[in-house]
Amino acid sequence: MEIAEPEQQQLGRYRIERTLGAGGMGVVYLAHDTKLHRPVAIKKLRDDATSATARARIQSEAQLLARLNHSNIVQLYDVLEERDGIALVMEYVEGTTLKQWMREASPSLRDKLSLLIQLCHGLTEAHSLGIIHRDLKPDNILITRGGADGFTAKITDFGIAKSLQADESITREDHVAGTVEVMSPEQLQGYPLCPRSDLFSLGTIAYELLCGSRPFDKGDRGENGPMALAQRVVHDPHTPPQQANPDLPEPFAALLDRLLSKNPEQRPESAEQVAEALGFLRTEGSNTITGDYSETVTRLLRKPPNKRKRLLATLAGLVVLGSAGYWGWKEITKLEPQYIAVLPVQIEGEIRGGQELKSLTKTMVKQALIGSTLNLKTSALVAYEPEKASTLETQLSALRDKGATGAISAKLDCAQQRCDINIELINPANEKIINQAGFTILPLKRPESSYRISSAARELFTKKYRKETLPPPMQKDDYDTYLAIASRIENKNSFASDEASLVRLLNKYPTHPNLYRAVAWLAINLYIANNNLDFITKGLVNLERAKAHNVDQALILELEFLLKSQQENPEGLDRMIADLQALDFPSASLLTEYARLLYRKGDHKESLQIAKDASVINPTPESLYLLGINQYIQGEYEKSINTLMRCITLNPQHWSSQSLLASIFVEQGDYFKGEQVLLKIPAEQLTWYEHTNFGTIYFFQKKYKKALQSYNQALIISPDNATTLGNIADTYLSLGDHEAARETFLKLKNVTASASDAEGKKFFALSLAYLGEIDPAIKLTHALIQEYPNNTNIKYMAAQIYALAGENRSASYYIEELINQGMDREWFSLPVFSQACVSASAAVKAALCQ
C-alpha cells in the first residue's frame, strides 16, 4: 500500500522530510531537527484518529518513554502539543524491523542469541521502572548497524505499554490491546499483568528465531483467524521446540519451554535472569555450533561451579563465566512441573480365572501406571477417583479442574491367557493424545507384565523427564501380596495386619517406590477407619527406612506431608513444602488437598493461605474455588467474587463456583443476580445447596410458600440437612407458625446433637436457643466465636442467639460487623432481630430500626 506524503512541512523546529509509515492510530515521519542538526522520527496522531483512547495511548507513551533512557530502547527527544493533538519526537533508527531481519539477514546462532540478550537488557530497564511493554513483537523491534555485536536492537512502540502504577481508568479497551500471536495467556484473558507477560512475548520471538516457526501456528499460519489462535495460546501447549527444529539442543528447548509457560509463576523471574542464561549459552557455544554443542553445554551445566570453571579453562576459545550466570541458567532450565493422573483401567473380553483374576489384572495395570509416574522427574501424581460410569470427557473435564497436565489411560482387549494393551498419554486441556504405546501382556505373569507396563508408560514422556532406571520387579508371591494390599487400600477396606506384610516387603525390596506409597495410604485408611493416630505414627516410622536406601527424597517428603497433615496440630509442614519445592517437586496439587483438609476441619484462615499458595503455583478451578470459599467464609466478599470469576473463566461449567457466587450475591441482597447465576446451572446438576439458595431468595422476597417448596426439594436430595432444616424453621417463624417451627428446631437439635464440625455445632446452638435452652446455647456460642472469630456464618448465628438471650448489645455488635462486611440488611429482617433495636448502635439503628 502506498503511503501518502505529509501535508505539513514543518512542526516547530522540525522540518518534515517524508512519511516513514502509518498505523491505525498514527503516522510516523522522518524529520530534521534544525536546531541540533540530526534526523528524528516524529509520531503524530492521524487527523481521523481523534478518539479518547488514541489520545490517551500516545500521551501514555510519552510519559513512559520520558522515563526510559537505554541503548536498546528508542529514545524520546521531545513532545509537541498542538491544537489538533500531540506528537512524539523520537530517535530515528536507520535500519530494519526484526521481522525483516529474520527474513533477509540469515543471522548466525550467535547473532540470534546476541539480539535476544539485547532485548532482555531493554526489558530489564523498562521493568525496573515498573513499565510493561504489552505488545513486544518483531514489528516493534528495530535493528540498526553498530554496537559491540555489529548491530543494535531497539524496542519501540510503547503505545499500549502501561506502568504498573498507571491509572486503570484510561480505557478498558487497553486491557486486552495487543497482537494475539505474541500476547500472553493472562493478557488474552484480561487478567492483571506483571513483567513476566513480556517474557512470554519474548519467548514467542525467541521461538521463531531458533525454530523457524511460531509456537502456536499448528501448521495453519493463522488461517483460522485470531480467535482460534487466542484459544490455542490460552489452552493448548506450544509445539515442542525440538519437534519444530530437531537440531535444536536441549538447553535451548528448555529455555523456550519456560518462557512459554501458561502460568506466569513458572516463567523465569526476570529479563535479567534470561539475559544471564543466554549469555552463558552464547559464550559456551560460540565455537561449537555443531552436534557437539548440546553435549558440551549439558556437561557444563551438570557440574558444580568449581568443577565447571576447571572444565571451562580446558576448552579453547571459551570464556569462564561467573557462578551467577550458571545458577541463572540452572534456574531457568528447570523442567516444567507435571501433574499426572491415572484413569480407570478398562478391560474387554475374558481372562482365564474369571472375575477375580480380571479384578486383580485391573489393579496390577493401575499400580504399574502409578509406578511409572513415581519414576518421572518434576512430576506429581494427582489423586483422582471418578464417579462410576462417567465418560472419558467427564473425567478429563474433572482433571482440568484439578490442574492435571497429563492423564494416562489403559485399555485391554483380553482373550483368556493374553491381553492386548493400549496405553495413551492424554492432554486434559485439549483432550488430544500426546503419545501412545501398544503391546501384549500375559495376565498370569503379573510381575513381568507390571514391569513392562511401567516401562512403556514412562516412555510416553519426553526423555528429559525420565529417571534413569525402574526398580526391578518383585517375585511373583511377593508381588501378589502387594497387589492384594493395594486393592484393599483402593477399596478402603484395609486390614491392620497389612502393615506387617508391607514391612516384610520393604525389608526385601527397600527401593521400591510403590511400597512406600502403599505404606502411607494404608496408614491413612486405618487412621480414618479407627480414629487412631497411632497408625499415622507407625506410617511415619516405616517411611524413615527409605532414607537409608537412597529412595527418591521428594516422594518420601510428599508421603510424610500427607501423613503429618492428618494430625491435629501438625508441625513443620511449611518447611516440608519449601523442601519439596527446592527439589523441584510440583507442590500445587498437594497444597490444594491440604487446603481442602483444613477447610473440612474448619480452619478456614489457614486453608485460605494454603489455597492462595496453591493457586499462585498452579491456578486451577479447584485451588481457586477453595480460595474463594474461604474468602467468603472470612467475609471477604469482593475478593471471593473476583476469585470465583477467575475460576469460572477457566471453566464456565464449574457449577460449585457458580453456586457459591450466587450465595454471595444473595447475602449482598442482589437476589435477581443470584437467581440468574443459579439458573445457569443445569437441572440435573442441582444439589441440595442450590435448591436451598433458591429457597433463600424466595424467603427474602417474602414468597414463603415457594421458599418451603425449594427447601423441601433440598431435603429430598439430602435428608436431615442441618442448613435446610434451619432455613425451614426460620420460614415457619416468618409465617407465624410457631408450632411447626418448634417441631423443626427439635428435629434440628436431634440431627446435630453429636456434631463435631463447626457447621453442625452452630445449628445445634441455634436449635437450643430457639427451644429456650439459652445457657448451653450461649456457652457453645462463646466457644465457637473463640475458635472461629472471622467466620461469617458463626457471627450470624451469634447475632441470633444473643438477640434471643436478650443480650442486645452483643447482638448489635455482630450485626454491625456483618453489615460492614457487605451482608444485606434483609438478612436481619427475621423476627428475632426486632429486639436488637432496643440497645443497638447508631449504625445498626440506621440500617435496621428506622
From TrEMBL:
This protein's UniProt keywords: ATP-binding, Kinase, Nucleotide-binding, Serine/threonine-protein kinase, TPR repeat, Transferase
Residue intervals of the Protein kinase domain:
14-281
Q: Where does ATP bind?
A: 44
Q: Name one GO molecular function term.
A: protein serine/threonine kinase activity
Start-end of each TPR repeat = 621-654, 688-721
Looking up Gene3D superfamilies in the UniProt record yields: Phosphorylase Kinase, domain 1, Tetratricopeptide repeat domain, Transferase(Phosphotransferase) domain 1
CDD domains from the UniProt entry: STKc_PknB_like
Q: PROSITE patterns in the record, alphabetically?
A: PROTEIN_KINASE_ATP, PROTEIN_KINASE_DOM, PROTEIN_KINASE_ST, TPR
SMART domains registered for this protein in UniProt: S_TKc, TPR
Q: What is this protein called?
A: Serine/threonine protein kinase
